[in-house]
Every structure is written in structure tokens, then in C-alpha cells.
Design brief:
Length: 146
């Protein structure tokens, strides 16, 4: 279903993605992080929907539709390293920093900080070309205080 999209995304020098394609790719990355621990929880799904609504200005129904398509894309996407590097080459830095923040929101949605998720977030941040400082700031913005 997404073969052409993935082929375009993993070209040696991919073109910038359209806004809609970037939303799909970034949401698929959120899904990948949520699935990392082998348990794709309802609170993670709701968090992804909420992020899509807020970040992309979508209605609830459109956000659910995007997440559903992203789940399919994620299942067909290449390994995390190639997939994330492709996103890096096709999405502006500021958007990638926002994605790292959103990834932390998803990883922490179940209220438990998992070692697998931490490791994946460190890898993904690096592969997205997001500096350690910007990644740490993104994590701090989403960690609940209190």
C-alpha cells in the first residue's frame, strides 16, 4: 500500500516531503516508538491522536485516520535506522525537534519510563540529527512536574 511512498522516502537524496506526507511519516515514527516495548497501549494510541490533532491542526476523526494510516506505514517501513534517516533528510530541523518532543510524550504516555523506549529515543534523536541539548530540552518539556 505504501510501497511508492517508502521508495520515495528512502532514495539516496529524497526530496522534501509534502506537509501531508511529512505528517504521515512522523506519525508512523510515533507509532514505532509506542510499539517498541511490545505493548501498544490505548493511552499511547490516544496520545498519538492528541499529538496529531494539536501538532497538525486536525479534527479528532482526521487524527484517527492519520494514525491508522501511520500504523500501516510503520508496519511496512524499513528498519528504524533507515526510516528515521529518511525522515531526517525530508523534514526541517525545527519539525524534527518537535517530533522528538512528541516521541517523549508517547514514550511516557503509559506513565512508565521503559529502558527500551529510552534507548530507542536516544537512537532516533541522533538519527534525526537533533542535538543532545535539544533532545534533553524536549524530554524536560514533557516530563510531568510535581
Amino acid at each position: 500500500m505504501f510501497a511508492e511512498f517508502l521508495k520515495k522516502l528512502v532514495q539516496p537524496t529524497p526530496a522534501r516531503l509534502t506537509e501531508i506526507d511529512a505528517q504521515l511519516a512522523l506519525t508512523a515514527l510515533l507509532v514505532r516508538v509506542a510499539r517498541t516495548d511490545g505493548y501498544y497501549a490505548a493511552d499511547e494510541i490516544m496520545r498519538i491522536n492528541s499529538i496529531a490533532e494539536t501538532r497538525f491542526g486536525l479534527s479528532h476523526a482526521d487524527a484517527e485516520n492519520l494514525r491508522t494510516r501511520a500504523e500501516q506505514l510503520e508496519s511496512e517501513a524499513p528498519d528504524t535506522v533507515r526510516f528515521t534517516r529518511a525522515i531526517k533528510d525530508a523534514v526541517a530541523y525545527e519539525d524534527r525537534v518537535g517530533v522528538v518532543e512528541a516521541l517523549w510524550q508517547v514514550a511516557l504516555a503509559d506513565g512508565v519510563r521503559q529502558a527500551e523506549e529510552d534507548a530507542l529515543l536516544r537512537l532516533v534523536s541522533s538519527l534525526l540529527g537533533v542535538s543532545d541539548m535539544d533532545s534533553a530540552r524536549a524530554r524536560q518539556r514533557v516530563i510531568p512536574t510535581g
